[in-house]
Amino acid sequence: MSNKYLVISQKKIKQTFIYRVNLIFTFLGNFISFLPIILIFLTLGFNQYIGNYSGNDLVIYYIAAFVVSSLTYPNIRYEIVNDIHSGNLSNILILPFNYNIYIIIETLISNLIFMITTLVFTSILFAINYINLSMISLGNFLFFMLFLLFGTSLSIILGSLFSITAFWTERVYGFAEFLEYVIPLAMGAILPLSLFPDIIKNILLYLPFSYLSYIPVNIMLGKFSIDEILLHLYLLLTWNLILLALYSYLWRRGLKVYRGIGG
Amino acid sequence: MYYFRVIKLYIKYSIRIKLNYKTDFYIEMISYLIQLLMSLLFFEVIFLRRSSLLGWSVDQIQILVATSFVINILYDSIFLESVSKISRLIKNGYLDQYLLYPYKYFFHLSVNKIDILRLTSLLPAIILIIISVNNLEMKISYTAIISYLVFILLAVVIKFSFTIIVSFTAIYLVQNMAVKYFFNSLFTPLSYPIQILSKSKLFFPVLVIGVSLSNIPVNSILNYQKILTSSSILFIIASILIFIFSMIFVKFSLKYYNSGGE
User: Fold this and answer.
1) What is the reported pLDDT for B94?
2) I need a surface site. Which of A2, A141, B113, B116 has the fewest CB within 10 A?
3) Taking the model in full, what pTM does it have?
4) Considering only CA atoms, which of B234, B254, B185, B214 is closest in space to residue B69?
5) Are the Cβ atoms of A197 and B31 closer than 8 angstroms?
6) A53: which chain B residues are within 8 Å (Cβ-Cβ)?
7) A68 vs A71: CA distance, rounded Å
8) What is the ipTM of this complex?
């Protein structure tokens, strides 16, 4: 990484820690929002089954999904939206760095910091509830890490794709609100996809969103065979390539319609 | 009389504004509907595989989820837009305008952006409650219905009191967005059964507010033979105390308000 991107990274880390109280309160807010779901399965008991998930599996599933999605949730990047709408993008494009790499670094650093915070706090839940983690094998964990890596790249591409709709729309907030409901469902953050009726499950399973949480977490829990893991790895890489190509195309088209008003 | 006249004016203006942005109004209605469906979906999928959840049947859970929506939409319609801009008013010094009003500034600050048309989003939740109560084949007395409504109003009062306290922290904090976000999240457990508290001793204080807000009203219709339990009495006392505390907090905080900004 060249020096200028290192400076951008350092700046982002400093910026995040200046508002560390905000970071902690935001995390606590997210944590409380998802806590009731975990408590439902803790109250039900570890030996109760829902579909092919035991209570223990579901508690681990939700905690892991919470940690994973803090890294892979494809947020709309409002920096991009504001830069496009305010015309500030014109000023940035003439600077001697690649705007897209700049956005990747910013997203990655803020998500990584958020994931580490989440991991630290959620480990308390594991500790106080004596959750059994013995079903996680080293092989599955390594596959999980691999999926997490490509899932993160997929989420950055998706987030950027949603953000550059600002080239063609005046307001993205309605679209953002719609995504806020649909994405957690498609990621398997509301319920494991396998608990849905077959038709819905089969559609959601092969959309890119399932690779952001449901599939990596289930690989870690040992719910997939090696053949299924390899198939999904192939599909994950394919989604990455397809969406990256789509993003490059739309970015170029977007710059053509961009008028730079206000910049 | 003055208050009714002012409320009537606020309502008139809000309807006028809302009808100018019809698309936003429809999006808002659809958005509430999707929220309701998403909350139901979680429980419905579980009930595909179980006949009961922590002692609740599917119809009882539907009443709980719908009640939590009624509380949220009532709050959003009456107070949300007015209260959510208080922090900004404090930061840029525009709060002065309200403090100079000839009548209670607290009243104006709380309801000046009342959004009565948002109440139309209540319809799906009310229909769901009626259908679910009907499925349960219960004969509910008028007393139970009235107490249910009173508890819902008290829940709205509690939510309002908390939000106004958090909004006024802007007088002390440079940035209170994350604090507001955190306090909003306290109301997320609204649609979950009260039984989850038994497994959350560590998190009890942060969950109890949200959970009781919807569970106490629902309990008054599901256990209609015993409306006044110790927890419901505690709920009534707590709502009054929190409301009084919020007024004292606002009054106290205003001593430190220095009309910054413009």
Assistant:
1) 87
2) A2
3) 0.84
4) B214
5) no
6) none
7) 5
8) 0.81
